[in-house]
Amino acid sequence: VQLVESGGGLVQPGGSLRLSCTASGFPFSYYGMNWYRQAPGKERELVAHITAAGGGLNYADSVKGRFTISRDNAKNTVYLQMNSLKPEDTAVYYCNALYGVGYWGQGTQVTVSS
């Protein structure tokens, strides 16, 4: 199983980024996926969840209305569109597969700063 995140970077407050996570090694379309984040000195927190078929979505209160999770099962990829970014969104973002014992990507750094 492999999860590879991309799309992180440095962005100014109010800006946007789209993260991608491409999965391999398991039947992606059958499993829910999550995006988590971990800021320095803080615990890892769940940001967004999407069900296998994409019809069920959940978000942390801190990102509701600003972030959108989606998936393309034909491409084995889950996305996190992040708009109206704030400095407090700065963190390493990880995708997580709800398959087996649970698998994690290596993370991608998002820094929101002027």
End-to-end Cα distance: 37 Å
Poorly predicted regions are none
Main sheet makeup: 7 strands, mixed
Oligomer: single chain
Helix content: under 10%
Could you write a compact summary of the structure shown?
The protein contains no helices and eleven strands. The chain is mostly beta strands and 114 residues long.
Please characterize this protein's 3D structure:
The protein has 114 residues and is an all-beta fold. It is built from no helices and eleven strands. The protein has strands spanning 2-6, 9-11, 17-24, 33-38, 45-50, 57-59, 67-72, 77-82, 91-97, 103-104, 108-112. Strands 2, 4, 5, 6, 9, 10 and 11 form a seven-stranded mixed β-sheet that branches. Strands 1-3-8-7 form a four-stranded antiparallel β-sheet, with no helix packed on it. A hairpin with a 5-residue loop joins β9 (91-97) and β10. The termini are far apart. The mean pLDDT is 96.
Describe the secondary-structure layout.
Blueprint: E1 2-6, E2 9-11, E3 17-24, E4 33-38, E5 45-50, E6 57-59, E7 67-72, E8 77-82, E9 91-97, E10 103-104, E11 108-112
Parallel strand pairs: 2-11
Antiparallel strand pairs: 1-3, 3-8, 4-5, 4-9, 5-6, 7-8, 9-10, 9-11
What keywords describe this structure?
7-stranded mixed beta sheet; 114 residues; 0% helix; mainly beta; globular
